[in-house]
Amino acid sequence: MEHLPAVLLFVLTPVVLLVCARRSCSARRGSLLRRAAWLPLTVLCVHALSFALVHAVPGGPFDDDRPLAAETRAALEARFGLDRPAFEQWLHAVSGMARAEFGPSLAHRDHSVTEVLVAGAPASLLLGALALAWTLALGIPFGLWAALRRGRSADLTISACIALLLALPTFVLTGLLLIPLVFWWKLLPAAGLDQPSAVLLPSLCLGLPFAAQVARLVRSGVAEALQGEWRRTLVAAGLPERAVAFAALRLSLVSVVAFLGNAAAGVLTGSLVVEQIFAIPGLGAHFVESALNRDFTLALGMVVLYTALAYVLNWAADLMLPVVDPRVELS
Amino acid sequence: MKLCVTLIAGCAVLVLLTPLLPLADSTAVHLPRALQTPTLDIFIEHGEPRPTWSGPVAAPLATLREALFGDAQFAPLLGTDALGRCLLARIFVGARVSLLLALVASVASLSIGALWGAVAGMRGGRTDQLLMRGADVIGALPLIFMVIFAVALLRAWRGAHTETWLDQGAVLLCITAAVSWIPTARMVRAEVMSLRNATFVDAARIAGCSNASILRRHLLPNAAPVALASWTISVPRILVLESFLSFLGLGVEAPGVSWGVLLRQGYDALTAVHVSWWLILFPATALAAVLLLLGALGENLRIRLLPQQARGTP
Amino acid sequence: MHSLRLPLIALATVLALLLWCFSLTGTAPADLVIGNGPDPRSLDPAQAQSVADARVLASLFEGLVIPDPLSGTPAAAMAQHWTESQDGLRWSFTLRPGLKWSDGRAIDAPDIAWSMLRFLKPATGARMADLLDAVIGAEDCRRGRGPASAVAIEAPDASTLIFRLRERHPCFLKLLAQFPLYPVPRHVYEKHGAAWTSAQHFVSNGPFRLVHWRLRDRIRVERNPHWRDAAQLPLGSIDWRCIDSPATLLNLYVAGALDIAMDVPLSAIPALLASPGSAPGSDLRRHPRLGTFFLRMNVAQPGFAHSAVRRALSLVVDRDLLCSQLLRGGEEPAWSFTPTGMHCGALPYSALRASPLSLDEARAELRIGLQAQGMSTLPAFELLHTTDPLDSSVAEWLQHRYTILGVTCKTVALDAQSLRTRMADGDYAMARSSWMADYDDASNYLECFESSSGANRTGWSHAPYDALLREARSLAGADAERAAKLRAAEALLLHEGPIVPLFHYCSRSLVQPYVRGFEPNPLEWLNPAALRVQR
After folding, report:
1. Do residue B29 and residue C272 have CB atoms under 8 angstroms apart?
2. Do residue A66 and residue C128 have CB atoms under 8 angstroms apart?
3. Closest alpha carbon to A171 in C268, B171, C267, B246
4. Interface check B216 vs C, CB under 8 A
């Protein structure tokens, strides 16, 4: 009975979904169902792989500066279920995962893994959402502007900035913004998340490279659209220039939306570094730390969460495509 | 394009000839001058410890340097780090590590990716499904986590077998290569799939060529431009990955130097009361400049090699 | 309009999410904000680990006695007074009347006895379970060999607690002041089990009680109205900020977000010292710490078996240069294992100092040691250290020093957990280590390198050393004689032993001028009940 939810989620659901996908007559629904079926399977795969890796790594969570007495260690291992055979532990972990329970954290002993994840989520979510907001808020207008001023100085400046931002890794960009804004001019707080202004710089650092990418996509998309036949048609039909530009922008948004799934996954990775530099109480720091502390349960929880997030974000971006551009059929 | 290639070649020559340049010893701890700000007041200094080089190429260059410059060498023009080591010399030595690693790892990832993609594209059907789904799963893994554990595992393995070939650089190389081949595989697969139904392939098949020889003689040569284009994209990507890992403390170990390590040390030394900006600015500039150049080169190559694709994608 | 519905719903969801996130970020500051260190491993006293954990616990709990690091002798806390029998084997404590848990329930002696027994039981998994080994039956109980009922901790009535010892202990009172022995509320523990430490169930007996704990951010505690001296408590609430990077602590302090920063990055010390007149330089407080940074050598490794080799590797290192030029944070060069300022019982224990070797002397020692093992050169070895920047700097510096001696060593950075594992497995030649005093007594240091000690981990076993420590233990109560034995043992350790003591730590903190009651001390102990703010 303990494994029932796990069997339901990881075996029955994918099978049912795949069968439905095969039978469904609409290609769109079929692909949707297939995608849904692969989510639990991917998560299960990743979990199994990580579990194997975690247990192959030498050294346990209870190695200490002061060695524990053998009896104490045995008691701790029993408490956290580490004394059972590896396969049994894995089964237990999987059935826990199906109920969104990952067990107690080994390094933060007063918290369960779920609690740790829930506690870190708001800060990381805030940071990630703001970074994506920067991505769109800076990327689209600047890209549009550059496209409308194609070949002129504004376009050249923006293009140069885009190239530069695309070349800079997040942690380099952060340093270059941090030193003047925080340490020289003291405009923004250096760390923490106490004031609303504290989240400004981290999210900007995180979002800028993706904003550059979006600006590039919009610029080339709009510029190409404006060269097409239909622009002449629209202008001839009496539409004002601005309306034509917006129509072109809407066309270029297809590639932007398709890119957003990637960007969201990139934001997840980038926040590892940014959260560390700005000491933001988010999830990112747990990633490296849990592995280094041999906090097996938390590490597995983090992996599963990030895998599922990356999958769902990519999926969501694909689902958004036909909304932006009805011509796109789900493939 | 020409400018780009010239600049990259210039960088490569500078990096290769580092032992020849009159630079300070990048490992010489010189505490009294720790965290010295960049200055051009003293340009050349004499009598400081000189670096030792070993290896078939580096050692003769170092001898030549002795002959050319004697004990004269550049003063720490770009400042010094928390242990008083010359940042200029460290950037040059770091470049050797970072760039060599990126180069070798990208070639390795190119080979894996091209093979994987070619087999998937060639066989099609179930094999293709399986291989590409496998690539998807690997691509969906949170990379950092896997890398941390792989590093720990390989380190433990290394601990048991001291004096093996498997040093830190090799560990990093294997891992970066192992996780960065997926885009290449996808691109090569698409190309091979489109070529598979071309007339000349059909002709070869009718002539009785085996799958392997078709792959080797017809498909791979024709997919080479795609592979090359994806390689130029993967070099900067691996460079970033390496510095990212080193930045998190998982890459090159101190006292080894890479640009990521330099940046990490820059952040460590940076505090509100002592803003040692040069420790971040200069390594960052070096990294950004090389990435910019490589990016531009990749873009140019892509336009030249794949004119039909370059038009389609922005 | 149909096509717009989905994006609008998505937008509304995102906005709601953002609002929720923002609502969680802002919290009103407490009366005093202390930048502490990483998150405590647990608020269960038996599970807590570091000095930083201990500081948080000291605000939430109090023991029978509390340490008074300045005077050296513990002061009364839950216990009003106590008596020690003539032979030192029976300790009787009388509790203050009217003690209460933070939920208002009375504390009596059986509660405390139960808590001590819980600490001993293997199922608790207490990290320092051997603290009470001097009590009759305690060692058997913690090893699962004897029943808890056989442990000689008794509560004959509601206000008396009696400990009977199997042998006289030189500093039993100092042991009882240790944080792992803080009392745990039996009524909550029996109701909620291991979950008793979660914020909604948490009950303690100290000056403050837990309000909430957000990981990687802060632990908020507020005045406990049921504490014995609650009316006199100057502070209404404290925020313990959980921040692991000292550089971040400094940045937050400079920005005014912290009233006290319990650590200062080493790289900032010269700049702080350069401006002693103005903040933040004027707020820097430094104090020698009872803690030693040292290297362990594995005597099983080729070349390290002979003490002359180890002596050469140890005594050639110029600690003065290391401290004055590399560290520059006020650390003291370590020519002994025990830090200066250590006590032996009530008497000051003045440690014996090893004399440094010149380069030529060290070469000669090395040669003698190697010849005795039939070697001509010391094989290249690895020096393991953690990825911590200070560690890496020291390791790189040492590597450079050893090349002068003609010895090749390769530095290997490991994460802390891997380093512990390799040390525990004896899979190393030389590794960085540190020892922080639990309590102020030289035996707490020297007993680490007894053959039977789990903390030894070097394979070094020296019968005369063990004998000296045994004799010292038998002299409990006669501090002067005991100190002489310990000094003799330390001389052996420095001459024969497997260690390279490098420096004694220095505690560094930044304290705003309006904070009173902060007394720097060798144990980095903080009395939260004494802190106050006077603007």
Report:
1. no
2. yes
3. B246
4. no
**pLDDT at residue C503 greater than cutoff 70:** yes
- How close A57 comes to chain B (CA, Å)? 5
- Rounded (5°) CA angle A19-A22-A26: 130
Spatial contact of C313 and C254, defined as CB atoms under 8 Å apart: no
Rounded Cα–Cα distance for residues A20 and C430 (Å): 62
Q: Name the DSSP letter for residue B216.
A: I
Q: Which residues pair with C385 in a beta bridge?
A: C413
pLDDT higher than threshold 70 for residue C160: yes
The DSSP element (H or E) to which C24 belongs, if any, is helix C2-25
How confident is the model over C351-360, as pLDDT tens digits? 888 888 889 9
Of B36, B62, B40, B34, which Cα lies nearest the Cα of B50? B62
All domains in chain C, ordered by first residue? 62-185 (3.90.76.10), 196-287+508-533 (3.40.190.10), 290-506 (3.10.105.10)
pLDDT tens digits for C272-314?
998 888 888 999 999 999 999 999 999 999 899 999 999 999 9
* Total CB pairs under 8 A between chain A and C: 147
Q: Taking a C-beta distance cutoff of 8 angstroms, is the pair A132, A214 a contact?
A: no
Q: Rounded distance, CA C153 to CA C175, Å?
A: 15
What value does the mean pLDDT take over residues C125-137?
90
**Euclidean distance between CA atoms A78 and C298, whole angstroms:** 32
For residue range B241-262, list pLDDT tens digits in order.
888 888 877 777 766 788 988 9
CB of A192 less than 8 A from some CB of B:
no
User: A194 near B282, Cβ under 8 Å?
Assistant: no
In whole angstroms, give the CA distance from residue A41 to residue A48. 11
Q: Are A142 and A210 in contact (CB under 8 A)?
A: no
For position A35, what pLDDT does the model report?
83
Average pLDDT across each block of 10 residues of chain B; the chain has 314 residues. List them in order.
Answer: 86 87 83 84 81 82 86 88 88 89 89 89 84 77 68 62 56 78 86 82 83 81 84 86 82 78 88 89 92 86 71 42
Could you tell me if B148 and B246 are in contact, meaning their C-beta atoms sit under 8 angstroms apart?
A: no
CB–CB of B268/B247 below 8 Å?
no
> Could you tell me the CA-to-CA distances from C401 to B81, C92, C369, C515 in Å, in that order?
19, 55, 19, 43
Whether the upstream peptide bond of residue C207 has omega within 30° of 0, thus cis, is no
- Nearest CB among A65, A122, A292 relative to C415 is that of A292
Whole-angstrom distance, CA of residue A81 vs CA of residue A92: 9
Helix boundaries (H) for A57-183:
70-79, 86-98, 113-148, 153-167, 170-178
Does the structure's ipTM exceed the value 0.90?
A: no
Chain A contact present for B263, CB below 8 A:
yes
* Contact (Cβ atoms closer than 8 angstroms) between residue C418 and residue C444: no
A106-125 tens-digit pLDDT: 889 899 999 999 888 888 88
Are residues C262 and C35 in contact, defined by beta-carbon separation less than 8 angstroms? yes
Average pLDDT, chain A: 85
